[in-house]
Amino acid sequence: MSLRYAVLTLLDIEPGSGYDLKRRFERSVSHFWSASHQQMYRELHKLHDEGLLDCEEQPQEGKPDKKVYSLTDKGRAELRDWVIQPAAPQKIREPFLVRMFAGHHLSQEELRSALNDQLHRHRGLLENYREQNERVLKSDPALQERYWLAHQTLLLGIEAEKTWISWAENMLQELEQKCVEDS
């Protein structure tokens, strides 16, 4: 996948400025796709140049005009063509797992610390996802229906974080057991 389709997808939900799009990206797609602010703006300009986006300038008091982007029919067609294509599963790119693979270089205390840090991060993400889920469940039923599939990605994120937490907790238990056995 490329940033191109993430941008088209987010603008399919609702037109917006580059700033609006970046905020939307950070609250949703950034949990499974990354892009910098500069990449986002470059992609917006590129999509506009290709005729996939319209751009309407809205005057603002004391600021430069705000550029609000929306999908053109051509943009919607390209998004649809992309969505109907099968997606191959992607391999995990997780630096922490590479560190664990080489973890035999860590002392037990360093390993415990690394696992606790990871556990803390994933618990934070889980809490964040659960809060987002609560907002979705309290939202207008028509919006819930429209974004049902997007909501499913959030639910998968919740399950993934639960798995990370369970794994880290099990690793910490096994580490404690090894410490007792080695004593």
Kindly describe this structure.
There is one protein chain. With 183 residues, the chain is mainly alpha-helical. The protein is 68% helix and 9% strand. Strands 1-2 form a two-stranded antiparallel ribbon. The longest helix is centred in the C-terminal third of the chain and has 35 residues. The model has no long low-confidence stretch (mean pLDDT 91).
List the helices and strands and how they pair.
Elements: H1 3-13, H2 18-27, H3 37-49, E1 53-60, E2 63-71, H4 73-83, H5 95-101, H6 108-138, H7 141-146, H8 148-182
Antiparallel strand pairs: 1-2
Number of strands: 2
- Kindly state the percentage of residues in helix: 55-70%
The mean pLDDT is 91
Give the SSE order as H and E letters.
Answer: HHHEEHHHHH
Through-space gap between termini: 50 Å
Uncertain runs with pLDDT below 50, 5 residues or more? none
How many helices? The count is 8
Rg from C-alpha positions? 21 Å
Query: Which class best fits the helix and strand makeup?
Result: mainly alpha
How much of the sequence lies in strands comes to 5-15%
Largest sheet: 2 strands, antiparallel
Q: Enumerate the strands of the largest sheet in spatial order, edge to edge or round the barrel.
A: 1-2
